[in-house]
Automatic annotation (TrEMBL):
Family statement: Belongs to the KptA/TPT1 family.
Record flagged with keyword Transferase: yes
Annotated organism of origin: Kitasatospora atroaurantiaca
Keyword flag Transcription regulation: no
Protein name as annotated: Probable RNA 2'-phosphotransferase
Function: Removes the 2'-phosphate from RNA via an intermediate in which the phosphate is ADP-ribosylated by NAD followed by a presumed transesterification to release the RNA and generate ADP-ribose 1''-2''-cyclic phosphate (APPR>P). May function as an ADP-ribosylase.
Amino acid sequence: MDEKRTVKTSKTLSRILRHDPGSAGITLDEAGWVRVDTLLAALARRGTRLSRAELDHVVETNNKRRFAYSEDGLSIRASQGHSVAVDLGLAATEPPPVLYHGTTGRALDAILQEGLRPMSRQDVHLSADTETAVRVGSRHGRPVVLVVDAAAMSAAGHVFRVSANGVWLTDTVAPEYLTLQAS
């Protein structure tokens, strides 16, 4: 599978498994899983023929590890980032003292006033390192990195979870827990 098709397939899977399963005629279970054979058949009906080996390649080579197979390998889901209601069943986890959030300068004023909100997703996404936050912020312009005082949030009772691909999730981050990383 060439790189262009791999990226296109990953984007298609993200849209279906995170945001719009109905567009492919599938239904995710309450934890976001769908059987692999059901997904492949639905893609084929839409004109996207994909073998299990090709799907495996997309799952294994995705640099953000967006997708995960169930333990038995029969089902697949997005690791995080859903705008459709799912319960990933992630346990509350003690976060590192600081986490990071990548954004753009044009969003900065609103974030510093209102904090981080999940917007169309179920959770706010945070990174464990600045490099990842920079990559995330770069998707929509010049990146800005915010430092999140996760230790203070946790001490105040905020719950954190970590997805299978290492993205830290929480409901919201109030402005008092945010500082702008020095450049």
